[in-house]
Amino acid sequence: MGADSPKVLVVEDDLQVRRFLRTALSVQGFGVVEAATAAEAMTAVTTACPDVLLLDLGLPDGDGVDLTRQIRQWSSVPVVVISARGREADKVEALDAGADDYLTKPFGTNELLARIRVALRHRTRSEGGSDTPAIDLGPLHLDLDRRSVLVCGQPVHLTPLEYRLLTLLARNAGRVLTHRQILTQVWGPAYAGQTQCLRVSMVQLRRKVEADPARPQLLVTEPGVGYRMREPQAGMDAVQGRSTAQRGDAVPGP
Ligand code: CA
Predict the structure, then answer these.
(1) 80, 144, 156, 253: most buried by Cβ count inside 10 Å?
(2) pLDDT at 236
(3) How much is the pTM?
């Protein structure tokens, strides 16, 4: 493992889950630092300078959402939240507090690595500052200079609002955005709670860019949370994750 391998801070009080994460990440060449409490996590963020955090929301001495808020006051380190299925409200709260993404227990190694890769890449991109003139995602091509959109090489005509919605999701490809985040950035802060506006526009946008709008391959719904532009590679990982996942290859459920 080289000195420049990314370092992951695993914040999780469940020893079994922590061991699984340590093993899965070490095998892939990541450096791993562990914290079992919110207090340990705060210390480790400052002393270990991790490249990314994996953060369990339920900690014995505090809440992962509060911890995210605290960290965000002075650090932009990517935070991937780990949470149980059915806790969508918690995930939304964590994302709106500044977390970058989430993993739902139980999850497999491929899903874990895909989320970490996306989080690390978006950090690098935002640090780099320079914007990309074009985005390619499978059949979708966005020319950001010309404000043109091609699907399978064919021009697609979008309203200005649909274009803003598509480019926001494409710039964050692989990453989940909450309803509130999308509404605030595309419609404006006054619309933060107008989820129905977003649903209607998403239906229209999918009709224009998805081969089968009823089974979207690009603009994926994250139930109860928001939307995610799926990356071609991440999509393949997810499929592989499902087909090859076996007992012992997945983090235990709650
Ligand atoms: Ca826990």
Answers:
(1) 80
(2) 44
(3) 0.81
Q: 171 C-alpha vs ligand 1 centroid, how far in Å?
A: 32
Residues with CB under 5 A from ligand 1 (ion): 13, 56, 58
CA-CA-CA-CA torsion sign (169, 7, 22, 60): negative
Greater pLDDT, 240 or 229: 229
Domain boundaries, the chain: 7-127+233-251, 134-229
d(Cα 17, Cα 238) in Å, to the nearest integer?
A: 20
Say if residue 249's pLDDT is above 70.
no
Look at the domain 7-127+233-251 and name its fold. Rossmann fold (3.40.50)
Q: Is the separation of the CB atoms in 211 and 165 below 8 Å?
A: no
- Higher pLDDT: 63 or 124? It is 63
How many whole angstroms from 14 Cα to the centroid of ligand 1?
6
| CATH (residue range 134-229) | 1.10.10.10
